[in-house]
Amino acid sequence: QVQLVESGGGLVQAGGSLRLSCVASGSIRSINTMGWYRQAPGKQRELVAAITSGSNTNYAGSVKGRFTISRDSAKNTVYLQMNSLKVEDTAVYYCNYRSFVGVGRNDFWGQGTQVTVSS
User: Fold this and answer.
1) What is the pLDDT of residue 102?
2) Rounded mean pLDDT of the chain?
3) Residue pair 113/22 in contact by the 8 Å Cβ criterion
4) What is the β-pairing status of strands 113-118 and 10-13?
5) 100 band by pLDDT with thresholds 50, 70 and 90
6) CA-CA distance, 79 to 26, in Å (whole number)?
7) What is the distance between the alpha carbons of residues 41 and 35, in angstroms, rounded to a whole number?
């Protein structure tokens, strides 16, 4: 089992910045992917950004150039720096930890943190 604790959400005006953090604990595997997903009201959960244990990154097209994902593997922590925030970035942001076992995978989720961007 892996536990994830997120922090850093809040209310910000459009154009502002926020930094999310997520600390993982428990049965951490050396090879894993950590990422951020978000879910706005009435919409499906979507990938925002992910980073592998080898520091390869993947971003949703809507956040490229504005958001930066990073990790501190020694602290089992992943960060999401969000700049130039837009009203449409408003959502609950969830931290994800993914490990791979054979041909399968295990996903763990944080409780979510609200990000609200006002106009």
Assistant:
1) 82
2) 95
3) no
4) parallel
5) confident
6) 18
7) 20
Q: Cα 79–84–90 angle (5° rounding)?
A: 75
> What was the pLDDT predicted at 29?
85
User: Do residues 88 and 77 lie in contact, with contact meaning Cβ atoms separated by under 8 Å?
Assistant: no
Helix, strand, coil in percent for the chain, rounding step 5: 5, 60, 35
User: Under a CB-based contact definition with an 8 Å cutoff, are residues 49 and 29 in contact?
Assistant: no
- Show the CA angle centred on residue 91, arms to residues 67 and 64, nearest 5°: 20
List C-alpha distances in Å: 5 to 1, 34, 66, 73, 101: 13, 13, 24, 15, 23
Is 24's pLDDT higher than 90? yes
Alpha carbon 49 to chain centroid, angstroms: 6
Angle at Cα 45 formed by Cα 32 and Cα 88, nearest 5°? Answer: 115
Q: Are 23 and 77 in contact (CB under 8 A)?
A: yes
